[in-house]
Amino acid sequence: MKEAGPAETLELAELPKPVINEYEVLIRTEAFSINPVDIKTRNGKSLYNELKSQNPFIILGWDVSGIVEEVGKEVTQFKVGDEVFGMVNFPGHGKAYAEYVAAPATDLALKPANILHEEAAAATLAALTAWQALVTHGKVSKGQKVVIQAASGGVGHYAVQIAKYLGVYVIATSSAGNKDFVLNIGADEHIDYKKHRIDEVVNDADFVLDPIGAENIDPSLNAAKKNGTVIMLPSFFKDEIAQKAKAKGVNGFYFSVRSNGDDMKQIADLLAKGLIHSHVSEVFSFDTIKEAHKQIETGRTVGKIVVKV
Ligand SMILES: NC(=O)c1ccc[n+]([C@@H]2O[C@H](COP(=O)([O-])OP(=O)(O)OC[C@H]3O[C@@H](n4cnc5c(N)ncnc54)[C@H](OP(=O)(O)O)[C@@H]3O)[C@@H](O)[C@H]2O)c1
Questions:
Q1: 3-state SS assignment for residue 244
Q2: Which residues pair with 130 in a beta bridge?
């Protein structure tokens, strides 16, 4: 894309293969996934200004799964032919909507043999966000009570499964239509957010994940116990959550996911052991990528959508 705008702004272009540096591998892409941050950036928000200031055109995308075709001189952990997946260069320029992606080796893990490239491409930005929210920042531990909101979405469906792996009690929110989905992936309890604010049902959670923000901030903070943790995902609300959390005696903050090959290895291990699964609700092609963007824009995606190359 050259300028910010609607899905129609996306254009297919023939470009030279990326040239890798000594710490990168060249991946022949099998599949990549689409996230709300792609849409926000395409619309001129999120990472748009930063990427545009450095590039005449932006190649969107960060989530890739594929086969290593070249290996940089300093790369020891991967070889040509390996199947790898990861979130590339986030929050920089990932350039993953492409047939070939240059990726720092430190952002990647080996794709488990038991899952498809589509499932691996899905389990990158969204799965890393869930992992880093619960484990790295939330320090969630066995026996705790956790609220996962938007549990049927990309981040939420991994967060429910990772939370269950961590041994916690999970209360999950979605609309009524996705109740069975979130219970089937392991949630212990379901709240239909259209019928109940979460703080009508819970006020003693150790950890609350809020992928929604805005008028949801107060209910999220009220659902946490004193000194509990509330993590906010949309960046627009980072100042608001910090101020309100302080006033309520809750540890509430925004964080941004970061590329991290070690965290990717943890996710790969959970996928390999069948402890978490990617729910890929729809697979698109390069030709139908505008439809994929429009699907994410509905805000109603269940699990993840991916593009098969
Ligand atoms: N800070 C970070 O590093 C970071 C990382 C990843 C994502 N994010 C942000 O987190 C948000 C979620 O990302 P995502 O990939 O999970 O999005 P997504 O897959 O598009 O989420 C869609 C899901 O959200 C549910 N939903 C929508 N409104 C809801 C509400 N008020 N309460 C409960 N569920 C609701 C929908 O369920 P129903 O159809 O049942 O309503 C749908 O299944 C986005 O704003 C994204 O940009 C931030």
A1: helix
A2: none
Tokens 């290996």 found at: 71
Rounded Cα–Cα distance for residues 232 and 203 (Å): 17
The residues, ordered by sequence, that sit 6+ positions from 155 with a Cβ below 8 Å of its Cβ are 126, 129, 130, 133, 209, 211, 233
Nearest CA to ligand 1 atom 8: 233
Q: In 3D, which of 259, 258, 236, 239 has the Cα closest to residue 247?
A: 239
Q: Determine the Cα–Cα distance for residues 177 and 181; give it in Å rounded to an integer.
A: 8
DSSP 240: H
Name the residue with the closest Cα to ligand 1, atom 12.
211
| C-alpha of residue 270 to centroid of ligand 1, in Å | 22
Q: By the 8 A CB rule, do 60 and 9 touch?
A: no
Query: What pTM value is reported for the model?
Result: 0.98
> For residue range 177-233, what is the model confidence (pLDDT) as tens digits?
999 999 999 999 999 999 999 999 999 999 999 999 999 999 999 999 999 999 999
Please list every protein residue whose CB sits less than 6 Å from any atom of ligand 1.
35-37, 125-126, 129, 149-150, 152-156, 173-175, 177-178, 193, 211-212, 233-234, 256-257, 296, 299-302
Number of C-beta neighbours around residue 104 at 10 A: 19
